[in-house]
Amino acid sequence: MRPSLDRDQIRTARVGWGVVQSTITASGTVVPEFEQVIASPIDSRVMAIRQRPGAMLTVGQPDRQLFDVGATSKNALRESELSEERAELELQKLDKDVANIRERTQTQMEGLALEMSILAKERDEAQRRLERARIRADRDGVLTWVVRGLRP
Q1: Dist CA 53 CA 1 (whole Å)
Q2: What is the mean pLDDT of residues 114-126?
Q3: So what's the pLDDT on residue 56?
Q4: Which residue did the predictor score with more confidence, 65 or 141?
């Protein structure tokens, strides 16, 4: 075996480690990565604004902070929590309804598939009977006799 490249065709160099400094100048508009409109699933109206634009939010963050800083009453907080619990129960009920409808639909689809299978078998059986009722020549030859009254 011989190498397919000559040593003169290969380049080598030392790699040095260090800080790379560069500056990039740019202009433009900063846009959010994504935007989302959150709509209430029930008829409602805005009673209070609990966060201001630019506030940092975390996943699942309630507006309980207003109560903690004394900006809302304990009754308003409890009413809000009860509304949230009612909405959660309604959501669970709707989820169960959707599951029941899916199950019913699946059962209906299985019934229709069975019915289609039965009808296809009946059609195939009728086709077989029709084929057996037709008389066909089983070999090449000459027709020599026909029953009277049934001429073509």
Answers
A1: 72
A2: 96
A3: 75
A4: 141
CA 36 to each of CA 33, 58, 62, 99, 113: distance values in angstroms, whole numbers, following the listed order? 10, 15, 18, 28, 42
Confidence of residue 29 (pLDDT cuts 50, 70, 90): confident
Report d(CA 70, CA 73) in Å as an integer: 7
For residues 66 and 71, give the distance between their C-alpha atoms in angstroms, rounded to a whole number. 5
Which residues are CB-neighbours of 141 under 8 A, at least 6 positions away?
A: none
Closest C-alpha among 41, 38, 33, 42 to residue 50: 38
Tally the residues of the chain: 152
- Looking at the predicted structure, is the pLDDT value of residue 152 above 60? no
Cβ neighbours of residue 112 closer than 8 Å, sequence gap 6 or more: none
| Cβ atoms 83, 62 nearer than 8 A | no
